[in-house]
TrEMBL record:
PANTHER family: SERINE/THREONINE-PROTEIN PHOSPHATASE 2A REGULATORY SUBUNIT B, SERINE_THREONINE-PROTEIN PHOSPHATASE 2A ACTIVATOR. This is Serine/threonine-protein phosphatase 2A activator. It is found in: Cytoplasm; Nucleus. Its main location: cytoplasm. InterPro entries: Phstyr_phstse_ac, PTPA_C_lid, PTPA_sf. Belongs to the PTPA-type PPIase family. It is an enzyme of class 5 (isomerase). It catalyses: [protein]-peptidylproline (omega=180) = [protein]-peptidylproline (omega=0). GO terms for molecular function: ATP binding; metal ion binding; peptidyl-prolyl cis-trans isomerase activity; protein tyrosine phosphatase activator activity. It comes from Notothenia coriiceps (black rockcod). Its EC number is 5.2.1.8. GO terms for cellular component: cytoplasm; nucleus; protein phosphatase type 2A complex. Pfam families: PTPA.
Length: 139
């Protein structure tokens, strides 16, 4: 379901040249999505050959994008943005220097918590109740 949702959203973004609200530009992880990077990096934990530095290689992205969510995200960025990757996607370029996918995954989870879940303009749209409390320290 999530993969199909991403396909639809990317088609809309391309077709209508949609621009994200509140984008951090080069300093944001991605203009539209974050979770696919977390899920995608978890696919690579303990991968025998692909390391974080490999997602900068166009050949690797082209050959492996259909197997790995992270590389599919990178492919979409490469299609939508022009110029050197280090300039238009600085955060991701920095991630390519991390030595292991488990470190990448852990860092992305911390970043998601800080940049999304702990930001009131984002979290205010969540439905809170007995299962998901807005009170600190409660499940």
């Amino acid at each position: 379901v999530c993969c199909r949702y991403l396909e639809v959203m990317r088609k809309l973004q391309k077709t209508y040249r949609m621009e994200p609200a509140g984008s951090q530009g080069v300093w944001g992880l991605d203009d539209f999505q974050f979770l696919p990077f977390i899920w995608g990096s978890s696919q690579f934990v303990d991968h025998p050959t692909l390391e974080p530095r490999h997602f900068l290689e166009e050949r690797v992205v082209d050959e492996q994008q259909h197997e790995y969510m992270f590389l599919e995200c990178i492919k979409f960025i490469n299609e939508m943005k022009t110029g050197p990757f280090a300039e238009h996607s600085n955060q991701l370029w920095n991630i390519s220097a991390v030595p292991s996918w488990s470190k990448v995954n852990q860092g992305l989870i911390r970043m998601y918590k800080a940049e999304c879940l702990e930001k009131f303009p984002v979290i205010q749209h969540f439905k809170f109740g007995s299962l998901l409390s807005i009170q600190p320290g409660k499940p």
